[in-house]
Design a protein that fits this description.
It is built from 3 helices and 7 strands, in the order E-H-E-E-E-E-H-E-E-H. The radius of gyration is 15 Å and the shape is globular. Helix 2 runs antiparallel to helix 3 (182-198). Strands 1, 2, 3, 4, 5, 6 and 7 form a 7-stranded antiparallel β-sheet that branches. The protein is an alpha+beta fold. Strand 6 (157-164) and strand 7 (167-174) form a beta hairpin. The chain has helices at residues 40-54, 123-135, 182-198, and strands at residues 8-11, 70-77, 83-91, 94-103, 118-120, 157-164, 167-174. Helices cover 22% and strands 25% of the residues.
Length: 203
Amino acid sequence: MRGRYGGVLLIGLLLGPWLVACATDPSLPVEYGVPDACWVDSTFRWIDPMAEKAGWPNLREQPPEHQAGDEVRVWIGFALRPWQAVRMARGPQGATVERFGGMYPLHSVNDADGDAAVRSESEHVAESLWRDFDRLDIATLPDGRLLNDPTVRDGVSYLFEVYQDGRYRALKYSNPDASRAWQARRVQRFIRSLEDHLGLEGL
């Protein structure tokens, strides 16, 4: 990562049967801002109070103070299992990564079960995750609803909030392991990288 204000937010929540696609395919558009998708209201209804509890500003309304930096947040979770959040940042001061989680999306944020402490990881881990994020070109993937994959009504979802080059966008993949699309496979590979580097299981 490049700085404490730049970052990538990867967010995965299980809140519905939506899947996402990749923007390196010219037939699939990259949307900046929040897409006009059925998952938006239900997903951000959970994410916003979780981010507030972690002490993270709302990335849609308050971009990183250092405009030269990037931020990515990834929220990962199941309806009946604790969610995990990963916040990656990079900027002139280096790369950082934090993780936050252990709460259940179906519970009140204030009364959530589990350990919801924010933990910081080493700069080496942050740099490795950023390399994988860039190598897999996750930032250019379009929203999953464009993949036309079969509907899966249970499993896990991944919401990515990306702030790069002064622009914000959000994209969501649900159950990418059930998709045959190469874009979904890229998401799966990045999730495996999170598991390997952060010691998370069952993402």
